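Dear Dr. L.,

I hope this message finds you well. Following up on our conversation about the binding site, I have prepared a predicted three-dimensional model of the protein together with adenosine-5'-diphosphate. For your records, I am including the exact sequence and ligand specification that went into the calculation, followed by the structure tokens. Please feel free to forward this to your student if that is useful.
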Amino acid sequence: MTAVAPGPAGMMTSEVLPARSAASQDWNDILKWGAIGAASIAFLALTGMLVVLDPRPVISGALSLGYVAMIWVPLVLGYTTTKQVVLEGMARNEQGAADVVRGALIGALTGAGMSILAVLVNAFDLRDPLVNWSPELLAKLGFDRGLGFGVIAWIVLGAVLGALGASLHLMPARIAKTLGIVVGTILFVSIFEAFLDDLLEGFGLTFLTDFLYASRGGLTIVSTIVLGIAAALFGMFGSGKSAGLTAKLDAMEAPQRKNANMLIWAAGLAALVLLPIFTGKITNELLANVGIFLLLALGLNIVVGLAGILDLGYVAFFAVGGYTVAILTSPNSPGFSPGLPWWVALIVTVFMAVLAGLLIGAPVIRMRGDYLAIVTLGFGEIIRLLALSDWLKGWFGGAQGITNIPPADFGLFEVKGTDPRSVYYLTLFFVLVAIYVSWRLEGSRLGRAWMAVREDESVAEAMGINTVNIKLAAFVVGAVLASFGGAILSAKVGSIFPTSFLILVSVIILVVVIVGGMGNIAGVIAGSVVLIGVLGGPKQPGLLQEFSTFKLLIYGALLVWMMLKRPEGLIPNARRTRELHQEEFLQDAWLKGEIDTDDDDVADAVDTVVDAVDGEASTGGAPA
Amino acid sequence: MTRLLEIEKLSVTFGGLHALKDLDFHVDEGEIVSVIGPNGAGKTTFFNMISGMVAPTSGDIRFEGNSIVGYDPNQVTAAGIARTFQNVRLFANMTILENVMVAQHCRTKTGAFGALFNTAGFKREEEEIRQHGIDVLGFFGTRLTGYRLEQPASVLSYANRRRLEIARAMATRPKLILLDEPVAGMNPKESAELTGLIGKLRSEWGFTVVMIEHDMGVVRDVSDRVVVLDHGEPIAQGSYEEVSTDPQVIEAYLGRPVEKRKKSDVDTSETGATA
Ligand SMILES: Nc1ncnc2c1ncn2[C@@H]1O[C@H](COP(=O)(O)OP(=O)(O)O)[C@@H](O)[C@H]1O
Ligand SMILES: [Mg+2]
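The resulting structure of the complex is given below.
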């Protein structure tokens, strides 16, 4: 059930009782959550994050990424375990000191998890099964100041953060929000260091970089304070403005709003076109990677998000694109090397992708749900193994792959890996194509049929939709978009190997689509930027390069968490949200009086009058 | 009158259970035929076989003279037979308008190309689909039109969902409509109104109708002919009066407890007929 905020006049509201005394606590519950917290934080430390991420400073000399990866645990636990579920009509206590005490205790127990770990690491050597059970870990657990300091510090730190988390509920909303903005800004500016550094340099604002960042990376203490104050001022006084702006946009008349939307789109597009001019190689490389995965995600979004076909072998089409271009353009192609220009090869690629879509699609498309997922998973691997095989080595080059793929030559300019800006533009073009295709198809006869199939396949078929053809169409459109990605990859990297097309690629693209928001273009964009841009792709580093060892752990955790808490994704599609929260949605509609209740309907009343006048409603003999 | 649907010795077994046995049946163009029978008699299975969702074990189904046994459900719909479901099965998260638009799939043809390049043909067809959708929704007055068009089907009341199911079937531009218990769960006023509309399906839209119905009042008021199934076997066919006085039918209904939900309906009409 959703927690319903006290509604409009006349509705039930919860009775609020005075706050509990600080000493009245549910001790068992505190112990339980404390143990969960302690286990989680110790687990995170043992994954190696604390040590591996430590070299990356967030605030130079004060806070490293390693510690950030730990201390969110007591903070978040303190916040969530003191959050009240407000149920309509149920009495509840006002939140107060008792909650802060509860948060602090749970936080302290969580911190104690690290203290205990420190003592254990000091006493025993378990390095054999646990690779991260190391002297470095012990040093970091003691904050580089020794075991005794560490043991006490973790408990105190945990308690403080837990209490802070709990007290977020007590603060006025505006203060809590401002705090969030301050922390968010500091983390953002620190994590995006490489990107901002690059961008500021492009604009000739190096003095800002020098001010913001320490020479060995991370914010300086002074810049942290300045940023914090600036963010706080914005949070207190400025943040209302953006809400006002959206409200204004919403209030506009349809044609006016359309113009405003066009303006926003045009501005965004202009920014995307101009951006790489000001950024350097590394950033452009990153942007190009985000673009390639975005392209793949947009394609998969049509298959999974619109048509509801869970394709786990999507990487197959990425490989088809990559290998087709490699064979047709590279002079080193072992079997057949016509040495075509890239764009000619691209045309052939489209045909190959359609063919592959049909070939792989035809046998699997009649299956449903889990079966289809498993079989597509198999096909994804088959394509890679064929490329790797000795049997087809004469064509695909086996494990050595195909190298020496020339740049994509467009006469006026060349797209090649050593010039990431050109790759970025090429990718941007295809991403725009993919967005356009998704957008147009979604609102067409084909898009409606996809949705119907997703909703109920048997009924869709009974309503005259040839579900096999329709699903194949989704498969083929997705295949073509993925093959574009492969074609770009070939020109960009200059060589293609079977290991470029691991199952992991399918999985990561799927996670991007799910985390971003299935069936929603904006969601897929957000998912790619956040996941690929920040954490990195299967092989491509993101902004947080240090995370690469933990990328899969984080992807997995994120996926599980999203499935539990927000299955509709970061930026949900309204329709998808309804599908996933049907019950709550109906309940809300009912509470708001929006639901259609049979007879008392105005429409009904009108009809009855009309019918009575027609004299036709009397044909039926209602049972006497 | 021309034969629209002709069924010969149709049988189906589900693991030994004869859900339908040697059914001979026909519908002429412009008829309204009711199929009645106790729960579990095989009525829905009968519809499932006509609509291609269940394959018959033996027998033949001919529509406009051509056998449609072995057709996929979408081919059956394309041939001109549309249906509704006993347990309403709408596309709950698509809008009301989209529900009737998507049902016109097999009558329209623009593909990806038209949509991508927004061709004149695409725009024209979209407009036609939309207009026809609004037309069929208008069959139920203003209940499913206006502001409702853009609402998801899931917010509709039970009775309106049943109406939308019928509208969706109408949208496929069929010749024959199969209605599976169209008034089930409706109150007397609603069911009386729908009875009138079933008549109009024929008089205004020119559809031929086969309807499964428990409400004997509705059956009496609209049907030209009634077929009674029991245990998968046809036990009587004929006008309402003939069927309702048939001793075998009376036994089928009275020889064992009549299902509770419909008791009052069946009782009143049955006793009325037998008295
Ligand atoms: N797909 C199926 N598999 C097995 N048994 C079925 C299937 N469909 C229907 N039946 C059985 O066939 C009989 C007739 O069911 P049905 O046609 O739904 O009856 P009704 O006349 O109430 O619509 C029932 O006993 C039912 O359990
Ligand atoms: Mg039935």
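In brief: Residues 581-620 of chain A form one domain.

With kind regards,
A. P.
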